[in-house]
Fold this sequence. Notes:
With about 350 residues, the protein is of the alpha/beta class. It contains 10 helices and 11 strands. The strands form 2 sheets. Strands 4-5-6-7-1-8-9-10-11 form a 9-stranded mixed β-sheet, with helices on both faces. The chain has a two-stranded antiparallel sheet with strand order 2-3. The relative contact order is 0.11.
Amino acid sequence: MKFDTILFSTIFVGASSFSTSGTSAIRKMDKNLFRLGQSIENVDQKTVTDNNLKEDASITSASDLSVPYTFDEMVQQSSMAMKAAYEAGVKRQVVRVLLPRDPNSAQLGQYFEADAELNKRDLVLSPPDETWQGGIMQLYRACAPTCQAILTNFIGSPGGIPPRTVEDRSVDESGVDGIGLWMTECPSPADDVSCFVQPSQEIINSIETISQQAGDRLVMLMNPQWRNVDDALDAASKTDGVLGKFASFLGGKGGALKRLEEMGYESVYTLEGYVCKGGNVRLLKLYDSDWGVFAENDSATDFIFVGSSKTRPTYQDVDKMLDEKGITLKYARDMGFAPKL
Length: 341
């Protein structure tokens, strides 16, 4: 409300309609109106400030994140991020996690059987990259039980009974593409969750069908086989017109991502890893946070925060962050040429 306009109008009316004896009364009324205007403006400003503070409080700072070092920590962190996103109305979620493997196993990436008694604290978290000798099927054998653990943690144990999980491999028509559909069977069907494990672009129709049938129930994609970064074909497939369609036909992910976006899929938890300057690096992003970049210390006991980014940082971005923190090549630190991390 423009109180200076009211003040001017009051003075104008007072000057033309009242006698000189009423001038003091008019001035008093003007002062009261001015004080009222100031009070309302202060209240409005405080409301805006409070709203901004609430918005800032709802965003997790990347520097406050911590990289999970054990399997159980990762399961707990990812399921909490899923819950936060689900409560915010995100019913279609994409999750990327590291996979557990036995560090003493000669067969990298082989996970324990469901009925095996194995101490999970001995497992290490490994990126699902080309270092897995068994290929996509070996990755699936590690990703499937990880999916089960996350689903169980997400739902909890209503009535003291954990949910039953069911595997459907019919979505993998070839049987060797490392794709599966895991579903929970809860006491209340409204609480059921469906999870596509390592989905590829070829099963987008199946994802769309399950998403339509699920309604308000959660449907998630875990460790999709398309990468977060784009190559030339991916970039071309995201363009409109004949070129984009042709690039999608040749394997570009643009067409599949567009359909997933139309279905409402959003990334709610991402934990990635690779090697930079000879040391392990982790990229972590929750539903309500920026990207956080972390470097493993030389004793291999924890990850140290080195920087953040609004968008997914490139390898060059990460290398620059390490330089700015004074983190040198790992072999130089190991040989005593540089301080330990």
